[in-house]
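Can't paste images in this forum, so I'm doing it all in text. The chain is below; anyone willing to post the predicted structure tokens underneath?
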Amino acid sequence: MDHQSKFDVFRALHCRAAAFVIPNAWDAGSARLLTSLGFEALATTSAGYAFSVGKRDSFAGLSRDELLENARQIVGASDLPVSADLEDGFGADPESCALTIRMACGIGLAGGSIEDATGDPAAPIFERDLAIERVRAAAEAAKGEPFLLTARAENFICGRPDLADTIARLQGFSEAGADVLYAPGLPDIDAIATVCQEVDKPVNVLMGLQGRRYSVAELSEAGVKRVSVGGSFARAAFGALKRAAEEVRDFGTFAYADDAMPDAELAALMSQVQGRSENSSG
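Text version of the structure:
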């Protein structure tokens, strides 16, 4: 599919009655595996990418260029629409957010998210009016482009569990032009349902964190349109690696190989998906 077709598919997914799952790939290989499993769209993960290159998921540790290069590789590895984790837009000022969106559009992404976290422990969230203006600038940059803008309110994962402020921010983001709204770390299904009832755009919910977990069916019943997993698939992969290495270190055995994907299966998967991607126009 070309860029416009991927965007059209991605936008339509948010209009369905039931929620869909958008798993987060951290590199081209994980994107190809997730594509083969029948998912309908992919997201990137700054956390998963950071782990894969030996860095922390932090504003200081990851640059705009390297995150966009990672996203470009994921776009090229799959024929699915891809939405990117674009952190805070890589700058406090609205123009930085706009520039990030323009660059994201240029690499074939069907969407991406801008968050209101600052990376500053002393003031972890942008003041609300500035946060809204940053989303407005991002939305203006995306106008007319095949790009679905997600706006994130980070209160609950930045030590500010304020549901009223979260909802007010999401409402402001919607008015400013965001297409999808996202508040990671909401504490329970009642808070999730309240957010969905109080906003007028599709809501993304993050699963795979510690704490309460809900099925896709339960989230869909609460009004959620999209479910992502953030860096949790990458952490699951690292967990499997750690368990395998500990087995070899502590017992000198290799039973972990029973659960490993066979080389032939991986080789066939990578060449098959790569062929589809290379033969597509997107």
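The CA atoms of residues 22 and 228 lie 5 Å apart. The longest helix spans residues 232-251.
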